[in-house]
Amino acid sequence: MKEISRSIVGVCFRVTHACNMACPMCYSFKSLHVSSLATKCEILDRIANAGATKVMLTGGEPLIYKDLLLVARHAKARSLKVGLSTNAILLTPQWLNEACSFVDEISLPLDGSTSSIHALGRGSRNHFELVLERLELLRPYPFAIDVGTIVSAVNWQSLDSLAELLIRHEVRKWKLFQFWPIAKAHALRGQFALPVSHFRSVADSLMGKYGVEISIDARDALLGTMQSYVDISANGDVVLPKEHGYRIIGNVLTCKDLIKMLENNSFNFAVHHSRHWRDKNYPCIDLRDQTSLSIQSSRIRSIS
Ligand code: SF4
Questions:
Q1: Which is the closest atom of ligand 1 to the Cα of 20?
Q2: Whether 142 contacts 105, CB under 8 Å
Q3: 95-107 confidence digits (pLDDT tens)
Q4: pTM
């Protein structure tokens, strides 16, 4: 086994930067770059060669990319576990039937227990109902399903009701992300920002009440956590957060050593592994001596 300090498990690959929504709180890295299917497959090769075992296909909205299934098939051929993070608008039974062989997990967003709360960050009132419909559509399929929620000052009071809603829809995994004022979302910081201590107490309370019925994974927005995501753009650029935006630290197609690139740019391997340890049977790392990360670590333990 590679040393934990110099290896990666999961990678987010933005197959396209285009999106069919315009969420006011979008914190996605934007780029005008597009790439061919061959380039995307080469990027996946680099990801697999760097030792990653999982790729999350994301965007923008990944389902906009017409050859997404071919990308997923290539990832599977490289023995990667394949996840899809989607706003769900373009999910259809036909696509799901074809995806069964290549996609393992599907992640959908819900940011409140009602359409009006959800719309505060997502912009669209109809999207709330659409996601609930898609959760029903997904029930008979074999994918592992999770829901991601951006926890902010405008929705934390609705999360008890949202937990009950998710449990009714048989969602078994729930990812809570502290609102992160970066990129476009920076403009909402006055209204949405939630102190980390408040986020942690909300997450702890939800775990105490619902942790048996739904696995809750809470992720704060401290820099150490944000620098633990391997985020790769459609053209192979690797990005890390910087102040209220992103910086490109290199490109996987031109740099032969992704691990070295990350290492040279303060990538947080310890938190990266703490988050992914269940994916690769790594022991959970005890980070309790690192104040900013202690709660996250103990939460991950508590749901294992
Ligand atoms: S948050 Fe996601 S769905 Fe919304 S605009 Fe950004 S990329 Fe699109």
A1: 8
A2: no
A3: 999 999 999 999 9
A4: 0.90
